[in-house]
Write a structure and sequence with these properties.
Elements (H helix, E strand, L loop, with lengths): L6 E4 L5 H12 L9 H8 L5 E11 L2 E15 L4 E7 L3 E2 L8 H15 L4 E5 L2 H4 L5 E2 L5 E3 L11 E5 L10 E4 L8 H8 L16
Parallel strand pairs: 8-10
Antiparallel strand pairs: 1-2, 2-3, 3-4, 3-5, 3-10, 6-9, 7-9
Pfam families: Acetyltransf_1
Keywords: Transferase
InterPro entries: Acyl_CoA_acyltransferase, GNAT_dom
Length: 208
């Protein structure tokens, strides 16, 4: 990957369907047979928690190759406070360019922009092997618990990065996923009919 062979910019309305198809291609059969992520981003753009100023696409040779978006959410602290934080994603890179550094490039760029806007921390679900390279750590190390997760359950998927060092120093509590991320299988199926047919496969390593 050459740093001069791509641009990162804000998503525009004209990009929506192309980005939805990109995300569909990126996530198809990865975590489940088929995927729901392309419908999730379609829904999130109309969610009150969506942050248009942090909705980025990556372009290479005039073609969209990646995207990332952020949503506002909260930690319900054990002492009764409501602490405003961010979550992000789904973050997608076109399949033929995965594992070449483009994902980290748009991730680091978008995190820098979120920091410049004054946000304090980002929490979300992801793989520490990838996101650790951009400064994420296990959320449990910050005293933040994932909602609805039984005590003692594996929470290694739940990650956190402070954008302002020390932002979570005196915070312990429960993170809440924005409701916009929860979509029904029926709605996904209906939305997916507008895209080219693809075969759903049950593959090793899928988690749903």
């Amino acid at each position: 990957m050459n740093k001069n062979d791509y641009i990162i910019r804000l998503e525009e309305k004209k990009d929506y369907r192309e980005i939805e198809n990109l995300v569909r291609e990126s996530f198809w059969n990865v975590y489940r047979p088929g995927c729901s992520e392309h419908y999730v981003i379609h829904v999130l753009r109309d969610d009150p928690a969506f942050i248009p100023e942090l909705d980025f696409v990556m372009e290479k040779d005039g073609k969209l190759i990646g995207q990332n978006m952020f949503m506002k959410t909260v930690i319900e602290a054990d002492d009764g406070r409501i602490v405003d934080v961010l979550t992000m994603g789904p973050i997608g890179i076109t399949p033929e360019l995965k594992r070449q550094g483009y994902g980290k490039a748009i991730l680091d760029y978008s995190l820098q922009k979120a920091t410049q806007m004054g946000f304090g921390a980002v929490l979300f679900e992801g793989n520490i092997d990838f996101y650790g390279k951009s400064g994420f750590d296990y959320a449990s190390k910050f005293g933040i618990r994932y909602h609805d997760l039984p005590e003692g359950a594996d929470a290694s998927f739940f990650l956190c990065k402070e954008l302002r060092p020390g932002f979570l120093n005196d915070v312990e509590g429960v993170y809440q996923t924005p409701k916009g991320y929860y979509v029904s299988d029926e709605d996904v199926e209906e939305f997916d009919k507008d895209f080219p047919p693809k075969t759903k496969l049950k593959l090793p390593g899928q988690i749903f």
